[in-house]
Amino acid sequence: MSRVTSADVARESGVSRTTVSYVLNDTPGTSISELTRRRVLDTAERLGYTPSAAARTLRSGRSDVVLCVVPDWTAGPVIDTLIDDLTTLFAAQGLALLVFNDRGNRPLTELWRAVTPRAVLALGPLTDADAAAMRSARIPVVGSTLDEDPHPETFAVPQHGIAELQVEHLAARGHRVLAYAAPSDSRLAAFTERRIAGARAACARLGLPEPRLRTVELEVESGAAAVREWRAGEPVTAVAAYNDEVALAVLAGLRAEGLRAPEDVAVIGVDDIPLARLASPALTTVWQAIDAQAEHLASSVLAALGHDVPPPRPTHELFHVVERAST
Amino acid sequence: MSRVTSADVARESGVSRTTVSYVLNDTPGTSISELTRRRVLDTAERLGYTPSAAARTLRSGRSDVVLCVVPDWTAGPVIDTLIDDLTTLFAAQGLALLVFNDRGNRPLTELWRAVTPRAVLALGPLTDADAAAMRSARIPVVGSTLDEDPHPETFAVPQHGIAELQVEHLAARGHRVLAYAAPSDSRLAAFTERRIAGARAACARLGLPEPRLRTVELEVESGAAAVREWRAGEPVTAVAAYNDEVALAVLAGLRAEGLRAPEDVAVIGVDDIPLARLASPALTTVWQAIDAQAEHLASSVLAALGHDVPPPRPTHELFHVVERAST
DNA sequence: CTGAAAGCGCTTACAG
DNA sequence: CTGAAAGCGCTTACAG
């Protein structure tokens, strides 16, 4: 059973391959009689014709693939949901989102040169060399969910804003001596730095002392050690954690030290993972509008491709605090 | 800056495209002089030549892409790690693993016909139509991590074995009245069913009453309701949960009902997520050897492609109990 | 040992 | 309105 080609469709419907191509691609500027059109469409359907992506790509120099480069972060529910949403959004535009987990093994250049994607969506930072090469190869690159992105067209979740929101929430609760619990994973460094900067800025703005920074592993003992340090000297009464997992480690540390949340120390996380609700006390956290982020990213890519997309929704409601028992 | 082609390399190094192709592909049965060989390789390097995947695919009818179809499961750390591992393993063989999140929106047929992958790795069940069509198109399909897979070459994690291990662990602790906590997500049904069957079989074998089955949502109240039901009549003293998240919901339910683990009710999960350690009490769970599973799957695919791969490692150590405080 | 040529399946100027 | 033909970049029989 060899592949059905456009030539087969042409022969079967008694027209030329040109006509088949025009009909199937709805090529603008051509007017094919409705009868021919129908006949071609029916034949294609009947034969189970699927255009060869390889041939199309070779001919046009561009594919229907959007390459999504996912950096070597600790994967999490947030990124999974984001990719799910993106897959759906691109599919609606006839584009296939293919996900490549960049583990730093292979040069990215090789991959995108080989795949010739229509666009690249980089969820993490690209090397300057890669970015430059892609741009000069005319492949639109939409990048990075970080702040300070050099490309204004790019959507960026203001990471610092997330931490500011945490600090504001804690300050509103009357806390003055705050701590920031960072993850140890160096792959998250780019995010962590921005969040910390945001926390510092918010503290300064609110006239609070600088937050006491400490790395917390996902171990009870690590959480406990952080808590001990934070309680020494002028005692910390509230902790903003990088994410819900780190927050749960802090909560576990408090428990191990015989302290209570929020009475002794309040804790707030980020992400609103399902387990945040199950914690004891239930974890206050910052919810992120992943769907809005996905829409923004997809719109950026589509706009860069010249698709006529509605402008992305306003970004002001990108995240908000979910109040639970831990603060 | 237009694309560097093999013709450019040929011209620059003063040989024909045939020779370039032979050298670059290490085509067996040809012997090119070491001098020419070096010259071609150097030129290719210098020009930054990357073969066009599209042209190659068009010409040979097969690509270097392994398409990994990830069904619409609740994504989790396990699947993420698995895909990470697979990416690395295939990359080592010059194959790019591209992940497609199947959300049931688009017919899968369209996708694989278009991409012409070298092989398809289906992590979930395929429709019979898809499977048949792929096979008749000569695309090797390796599928499904479930038991009872019709294709013996396929690696399958014995799902029932995981539940059996949980039951055995609880029984060894002296528990006789057991419950099984299933997730509500219908997308997990295929797994859930097999696990439940495994739990039942183990109970029967050990002379225990049938486990009391109940669905538990990731909500404290849902866990509490389950606990109330389990404690009515002959009280359940131990719960095997579908995964760590469900186990944590049961733990939260116990807490809400004023019961203690493991004194009143023991709980065991599956997956050993980082948060299992942070729970109070720390959660006993079943650890799965994801790397071994990835190796198996990759080997199955490579073997189907005729690669000469070492036989996968024995599967007997695919999972084991991690004992913590909750049992 | 190396080269000229065909052809994979498509799209798109260019004629008719 | 539709068709014949070129060409995207590669690989691989087939000659030399």
Automatic annotation (TrEMBL), chains A, B:
SMART domains: HTH_LACI. InterPro entries: HTH_LacI, LacI/GalR-like_sensor, Lambda_DNA-bd_dom_sf, Peripla_BP_I. Keywords: DNA-binding, Transcription, Transcription regulation. Residues 4-60 form the HTH lacI-type domain. Gene3D superfamilies: 3.40.50.2300, lambda repressor-like DNA-binding domains. It comes from the Bacteria. PROSITE patterns: HTH_LACI_2 (PS50932). PANTHER family: LACI-RELATED TRANSCRIPTIONAL REPRESSOR (PTHR30146), LACTOSE OPERON REPRESSOR (PTHR30146:SF153). This is LacI family transcriptional regulator. It comes from Homoserinibacter gongjuensis.
